[in-house]
Amino acid sequence: MSAVRRFPESHAARRLRFPVYEIAGLAGTSLKHEHLPAILAEATKDGFFEIHAENYMGAGGPPHHALERIRRDHPVSLHGVAMSIGGPQNLDRNHLERFHALVERYEPCLVSEHLAWSTHGTTYFNDLLPLPYTEATLRRVSEHIDEVQLAIRRPLLLENPSTYVVFRESTMSEVDFIRGLVQRTGCGLLLDINNVFVSAINHGDSAFDYLRDFPIEHVGEIHLAGHAEQVDDEGDRLLIDSHDGPVADAVWKLFDMVLSRSGPIPTLVEWDSNTPDWPVLKAEARAAQDILDRHATPFILGKVHARR
Amino acid sequence: MRVAERFGRHDGGSPSFGVEFSPALLDPQCETPTAVTGPNKKAAVKRYNVYRNNVTVSLIDALAAVFPATQRITGVEFFRAMARFHVRATPPTSPLLFEYGQDFPGFIERYEYAQSVPWLADVARIERAWLDAYHAADMEILRPQALTSISPDQLPDAVFVPHPAVRIVCSEFPAASIFAAIRSEGLMDPMEAVAAEDALITRPGLEVVVRHLPPGGAIFLARLVSGETLGQAAAAAFDASTSFDLPANIAGMIEAGAFTAIDSGDPR
Q1: Least CB-CB distance to A164: which of B17, B26, B50?
Q2: For chain B, N or C: smaller number of CB within 10 Å?
């Protein structure tokens, strides 16, 4: 295949510009620049930060300066929102190249994108749009994931979406579709538990069933977030994945349940609009960390036991 | 199928859901796509509207983030109504939203309801340039000593390499003063809104700086940025303004960090 790129040479020549940090078992928050002074003033450097890749695709200036500062003290997770992996059209090679450059520059612990699309033709819609789950889309999305993983030379974590509609042409469940992607591409998964809950309510499905069937062994990161509430055409509850408030109680419970099966998984609290002051966001991450820590002990013991 | 293969690795089985789902996102006249439905035969009008709303509101938010001073001048409601028209007519073509809105100042200039604020478009032009400068590549600025290393007889042939952040905005209005007053959260004085102002936007370090340019300064810098020699740029500036002060403008452009290097024309 002509698309195979130089691999070993670039790895050998690579010099690590940033410290290596362990992200296992950590809670983190989305990085908001208004929080920077408060973050930098903190005595203890705990937790990881997740950044939206597109915000750092400018050539230079304060965003990169801030991110370099953060990356020195913390593990960073790179989260793309605009690759349009779930779309029918070819990936934007320029965008993929920019994404790859960020992976090389900041050496993130985790790299993720969405099972969704956002570009059609030349229009960028700035939303995570849904796709039908069919053999044809499974093939297309698999090609896209292959292409991304080949470019960044590491596995991608793919995030399950929150959705409001279903496609008439869908022939398989979302979980079956996602499992198919993992099997075909070897990608990892980002399990967004708020999205699971939002979609389950919106489609009258069971979040428990979804999580029971989800290939949890491939999950490399968890997202938690708040949601808003509207009503659908029939007056029933329609949840909106708004990221504008604290994590809902039901989502905390599902998180606890997932961890009891999987053990600790790096977990991000997303809070992207109506962002509170740093102490409030930090407290939300602390709450996630407490649950992670509670689930850590039996698993660490288990591992020690296994090693003997 | 051979033809299709030539245009890419996707054959005729290309999923069409993008074509079905997209058009109504930014067009309120368009009906809910028939490709989608609610679960268990529920309707999908309000459900699909969640996507319409996400798209439109988030793109208006994107414009508000690029043009905060413009929004402060017009008020939030006016700004969002104006931005909605623009978002629907000219949605972004790149996922880098900090680059969005390059056409917005021109739209404001033509926008019927903004005609009573004739300097609004120029304030928006300065804001757009400000954000370009903010995200521009980091580059060392030209040191004053660099000029002294060139012999006086070679100086007219010197060509300056522009800093990636440098932008020039010419206005018939005091747009730079209005921009500065609003961005610094200062109280706006009643404007003696007569003086034309040309603005130079640079980012010598991490801080974007907006300066007023003296008479002839804008054409002088614009010519230098376009790659003309110092001699050519100075001649154009003198033509434009008899009060053009060459030494002061050279000192000013170096202090502002408008350039990164001098190409004296010598073979390296």
Answers
A1: B50
A2: C
Put simply, whether B12 touches A (Cβ < 8 Å) is no
CA distance B9 to chain A (A): 9
CATH number of residue A140's parent domain? 3.20.20.150
The pLDDT tens digits for A65-84 are: 999 999 999 999 999 999 99
The strand pair at A48-52 and A123-129 is best described as unpaired
Whether residue A14 lies inside any domain: the answer is no
Closest residue of chain B to A80, computed from CA coordinates: B95
A212: closest CA of chain B, how far (Å): 21
Q: Lowest-confidence range among A223-237, A242-256, B145-159, B185-199? A: B185-199
**pLDDT score, position B184:** 81
Mean pLDDT of chain A: 92
Kindly list the residues from chain A whose CB atom is less than 8 angstroms away from the CB atom of residue B95: 54, 81-82, 92, 95, 118-119, 124, 126
Report if residue A12 sits inside a domain: no
Residue window 239-258, chain B: list those with CB within 8 Å of chain A.
Answer: none
Mean predicted confidence (pLDDT) in B85-96 = 98
**Given B36, B93, B97, which is nearest A167 (Cβ)?**
B36
ipTM (interface predicted TM): 0.91
Q: How many CB pairs under 8 A join A and B?
A: 157
Name the domain count of chain A.
1
